[in-house]
Write a structure and sequence with these properties.
CATH class of the largest domain: Alpha Beta
CATH architecture of the largest domain: Alpha-Beta Barrel
Number of domains: 2
Distance between the termini: 47 Å
Radius of gyration: 21 Å
Helix content: 40-55%
Strand content: 5-15%
Strand order of the largest sheet: 1-8-7-6-5-4-3-2
Order of helices and strands: HEHHHEHHEHEHEHEHEHEHHH
Structural class: alpha/beta
CATH topology of the largest domain: TIM Barrel
Largest sheet: 8 strands, parallel
Number of strands: 8
CATH superfamily of the largest domain: Homocysteine-binding-like domain
């Protein structure tokens, strides 16, 4: 039976929470479940929702325990056109409703919010706005309706690369009277696919009534932070930052541009060599806090240990902090009372010739 609300009315909603402190949101389900062997790369349709719901439920719980305050229903690419491609269009509504219900179940365990999710469709053509826009609007409408009926607290429209598609997403979300988080994937260096400067694209969405605007996916922290600095100065509403945890550069600003060691494309299956550490994502979180980003998270490639480090960087102690690293207890890197006397000569030779700085870095974080 469809839910009318995921929480009691006394539970603070998204906009109330944003006024008080940073809201931490975990994404990255797509890549993490593919790494776990529960999702097929290529179409990247979240078949796991129906095929192995316990695997999805477990990942939601891991992110919740790591400090996520938002459980996002895994409906990314669970839209009509994507399911048609893999021959599962008949599963469209069951997949969406089940994803939302699983998210709601887990969210209740930790007083988290439930986010419905819509995304880039690959159907929008800015050179044929009327025809393609009608297709996109229909896709978004049914997904937002199901999210509303299943009690989502707000809706995230993400990984958008045109102002046109973003405006359709916002229009449909507003139809269902839910708060909106609209984020672009800035995989082109300077402009959206339909020719707008990235920050100007965000300003347009603000003007049309979005509650939160910003960026997700595509860029790693190094190439997203300059955009966030600009964005914070140009809009008044809360801003969002959910990068991929990869070492993007000015030359290769998005993870789609990264190369593997043989010079081939690292995206999407050989990105591990570019993966950022928990410490780097913690540093990114602190920079976001300094800039004034209110909605912080992670996207493709992110894992629960990243989110835990990000939560701890905000001064929080989520349940899984019980297991945060304590290298003073390590048999080789630990304190003098832990490392056995007979091991110390070998530690000095085998572990510390170039590692002193690394050990210090790890323990300090």
């Amino acid at each position: 039976m469809p839910a009318t609300s995921s929480h009691a009315k006394t539970t603070p909603g998204l906009l109330e929470r944003l006024k008080k402190d940073v809201v931490l949101c975990a994404e990255g389900y797509l890549f993490e479940l593919e790494r776990r062997g529960r999702l097929k790369a290529g179409a990247f349709v979240p078949e796991v929702v129906l095929d192995n719901p316990n695997a999805l439920r477990e990942l939601h719980k891991e992110f919740l325990d790591a400090g996520a305050e938002v459980i996002e229903a895994f409906t990314y690419y669970a839209h009509r056109d994507k399911l048609r491609i893999i021959g599962r269009e008949h599963d469209l509504e069951p997949m969406n409703r089940q994803a939302l219900r699983i998210a709601r179940e887990v969210a209740k365990e930790g007083n988290a919010l439930v986010a419905g999710n819509i995304c880039n469709t690959w159907c929008y053509d800015h050179n044929d706005q009327e025809k393609s826009g009608a297709i996109v609007r229909a896709i978004y409408d049914e997904q937002c309706r199901w999210a509303s009926e299943e009690g989502a607290d707000f809706i995230i429209a993400e990984t958008l690369d045109t102002v046109g598609e973003a405006l359709i997403a916002l229009e449909v979300i507003k139809k269902y009277h839910l708060p909106s988080v609209i984020t672009y994937a800035a995989h082109f260096k300077d402009k959206t696919r339909d020719g707008y400067d990235w920050v100007e694209a965000c300003k347009i969405i603000e003007k049309h009534g979005a509650d939160v605007v910003g960026f997700n996916c595509a860029r790693g922290p190094a190439t997203l932070l300059p955009l966030l600095e600009r964005l914070r100065k140009e809009v008044k509403i809360p801003i969002a930052a959910q990068p991929v945890p990869y070492a993007t550069t000015e030359e290769r600003p998005a993870f789609q541009h990264l190369k593997d060691r043989k010079g081939g494309n690292a995206f999407p299956l050989a990105l591990e060599q570019h993966l950022l550490s928990r410490f780097e994502m913690a540093d990114f979180t602190k920079e976001c806090k300094r800039i004034g980003v209110e909605f912080i998270g992670i996207c493709c490639g992110g894992a629960p240990y990243h989110i835990r480090a990000m939560a701890e960087a905000l001064g929080r102690k989520p349940p899984s902090s019980r297991y945060s690293a304590d290298l003073s207890l390590h048999g080789a890197l630990g304190s003098d009372d832990v490392v056995k006397k007979h091991e110390k000569p070998y530690v000095k030779v085998g572990w510390t010739s170039e590692a002193d700085g690394k050990v210090e870095h790890a323990t300090k974080h």
